[in-house]
Amino acid sequence: MASPGISRRGLLKGAGAGLAVGALPLPASSTPDFDPPAGAVAVSSANGLGTVAHAVKRMSEDRLRPVSAAVEGVGIVEADPNDLSVGLGGLPDEDGKVTLDAACMDGPTHNAGSVGAIQDILHPARVAELVMDRTDHVNLVADGARRFALEHGFKPTELLTERARRIWLKWRAKRTNDDRLWPLGDREPVDPALQGEARPWGTIHCSALAQDGSLGCCTTTSGLAFKIPGRIGDSPLIGCGLYCDNGVGSAGATGRGEAAILSGGSWLVVERMRAGDTPEEACLHALRRVGKQARKGANWQPILWAGVRPSFGLTFYAVRKDGLYGSASMLGKPGSKKFAVADGAGARLEACAIAFPS
User: Fold this and answer.
1) For the whole model, what pTM was predicted?
2) What domains lie within the chain, and their CATH numbers?
3) Is 333 helix (H, G, I), strand (E, B) or coil?
4) Active-site residue identified among 51, 203, 219, 254
5) Does 31 qualify as catalytic in the annotation?
6) How many percent of the chain have pLDDT more than 70?
7) For residue 349, how far is the Cα from the chain centroid?
8) Which of 62, 162, 183, 337 counts the highest number of beta carbons within 10 A?
9) To 5 degrees, how large is the angle CA 205–CA 210–CA 215?
10) Separation CA 186–CA 195 (nearest Å)
């Protein structure tokens, strides 16, 4: 309420004048000043050893911007028919269609691009980068994303491999309900390659830091196996499956996409680093927040919670502007979950921290 003697019109007029001359300064930034990194660093999910090695090489030797290095790096996995979770060879939706999601984000410009539910395009991450660079949009989906890709020279590619088709047919033959609540009641994997999971969540994320301190990231996926047609996960959603702030760091997620969406998980990891957390601490904080949210969600969907912990997998990956990196996974025994990292010491797998150890 305006103070006595000041009319509402006068108050608004004065406020407008103040804004016009900058009389209301923006608050000072709370972002800390990080030391410069010793060299280029890239982190990724465990299926990204080649990805992080490629990204660091391209940033270090060719001075490629981090977001493009990450996009190129994940492209190695997109083109691998033996990876059932990303791109060529990815497991299809209920109808047997391989639909892909991808996004990328550039730290220096704070710009991003993404595609969702795109079909017949081998490298959706590259299309996402074009959306970022050549449009004023962030998200393109389905047929519109595919048409955009074709207009920019991408060729239609059959993504459903014979191996993935056989897995889908076996799943379809065993299916006993309509899958309108997560997850399907499957208990046995439909293929030994699924490592005990009936319906794997498959993704690759890469966060990249150049020696000059600039950041970029990319996440790409074929999504939840046998999903309802039209479903997209967290991977093409900025702040959920990936996020970077050039003054702080970069983060991304793999696992149950709905949990990363509902928590704004990747954004939260970056903000925790801004507040002073190490990357590993920030990832653990986000996972514990997701755990609390899952406990609430179990009131309507009990299968989200198993005794004293969530019942689903989720992993966050992060690199801070000073080159410190880390990762944490929701479930598992200490040392059982890995992530990929590359820096001056080469590419390797390291252990994720565990939020809810078994």
Assistant:
1) 0.89
2) 34-357 (3.60.20.30)
3) coil
4) 203
5) no
6) 85
7) 19
8) 337
9) 55
10) 14
